């Protein structure tokens, strides 16, 4: 188990092809407040729902570095009147758009997102970002990337999978790999990042060595 992992984000640009200046401004304001206040995951999500016209299930993990987005949404439904509609992301991924507005007819049905990053990964084992970046070049499927990382002996956090593999729901991918016969151990580790300005515990996965 790794004691702590620091993600030093030097460049992080997540954009939607047709994003309006209004939405861009709203997200900048939300991101700034999250970082300045050091808000936790649920508080970050609540702030976004209250201040952005609409948010998508695809973008929330990337914008707010959320690990368990569906559970967080479910946890806020008793507090907030959240409306939702189905949408398509990058031409092939399906999910939902969430809003506190009741009329969702003006919200698009399709979105195209892109992510550009420069992130340093620092932990006490000396595992940097390089092996994760190399695996990302070998295959495009988030699940295949995760499989390769585990087979190569890497311990993978939810943020590793998000930043370099494009996996928004690593727990679901891990469950699939386990059903295929992979023996994967789960632990937790502390992580910090300068995008949210927080330190918290997240899942850490590694392949169990054959006996």
Your description of this structure?
There is one protein chain. The protein has 211 residues and is of the alpha+beta class. It has two domains: 18-111, Winged helix-like DNA-binding domain superfamily/Winged helix DNA-binding domain (Arc Repressor Mutant, subunit A); 120-207, no CATH class. It is 37% helix and 30% strand. It has eight helices and nine strands. It has helices spanning 21-37, 41-51, 59-64, 69-76, 130-138, 142-151, 158-165, 170-179, and strands at residues 4-16, 55-56, 83-89, 93-99, 110-111, 113-123, 156-157, 184-193, 198-207. Strand 3 and strand 4 form a beta hairpin. The longest helix is centred in the N-terminal third of the chain and has 17 residues, at 21-37. It is globular, with a radius of gyration of 17 Å.
Précis, in short:
The chain is of the alpha+beta class. It contains 8 helices and 9 strands.
């Amino acid at each position: 188990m790794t004691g702590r992992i620091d993600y030093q984000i030097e460049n992080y640009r997540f954009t939607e092809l047709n994003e309006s200046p209004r939405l861009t401004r709203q997200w900048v304001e939300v991101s700034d407040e999250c970082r300045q206040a050091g808000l936790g995951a649920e508080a970050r999500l609540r702030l976004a729902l209250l201040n952005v016209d609409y948010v998508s299930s695809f973008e929330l993990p990337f914008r707010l570095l959320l690990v368990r987005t569906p559970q967080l949404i479910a946890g806020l439904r008793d507090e907030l009147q959240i409306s939702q509609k189905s949408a398509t992301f990058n031409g092939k991924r399906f999910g939902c758009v969430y809003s506190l507005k009741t009329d969702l007819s003006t919200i698009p049905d399709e979105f195209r997102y892109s992510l550009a990053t420069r992130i340093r990964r620092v932990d006490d084992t000396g595992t940097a970002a390089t092996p994760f970046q190399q695996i990302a070049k070998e295959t495009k499927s988030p699940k295949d990337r995760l499989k390769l990382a585990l087979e190569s002996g890497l311990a993978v956090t939810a943020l590793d999978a998000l930043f370099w593999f494009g996996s928004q729901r690593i727990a679901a991918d891990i469950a699939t790999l386990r059903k295929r016969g992979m023996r994967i151990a789960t632990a937790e580790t502390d992580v910090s990042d300068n995008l949210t300005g927080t330190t918290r515990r997240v899942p850490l996965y590694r392949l169990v060595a054959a006996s």
